[in-house]
Design a protein that fits this description.
This protein is an all-alpha fold and 136 residues long. The chain has one domain. Helix content is 50%, strand content 0%. It contains seven helices and no strands. α3 crosses α6 and α5 crosses α6. The chain is globular. The chain starts with a helix and ends in a 6-residue tail after the last helix.
Length: 136
Amino acid sequence: MLDLSKSMSLRKVAAALFMAAGLVALSDGQGAQAQDLDMDEIFRCVPSENVDEALCGEARDLIINNCTICHAFVPIVLQQFDAQGWDGLFDRHADRSPQLTEPQITDMKKYLAANFNPSIEPPDLPQELLDLWTSY
């Protein structure tokens, strides 16, 4: 499990992303409730031989702080790539985050391949987030 400070950080980032994306009203006229999302569930961590809890937290922070500068996190968590697929995606995005080091990129790819792959169902997201989908 994440410690509370990381969980709170993810929730604050999610709330800021929703506001920036203009998610003000739902189709039924109700206001969006970013605080109702469980970011720990969305950015899940399944510890494995290659990915421990610390790496999960670090990789999630790197993804949120770097990848979501250009797009919402929706396509990231809905993609179900194997390691080779994540390598290809990062190769196509290499010029977009020159501040990331090779070890950081490697950690991000390990985390994504372990937690967002064809053998694990993607997380459930509200329609308002699914509408933010961007294609690669």
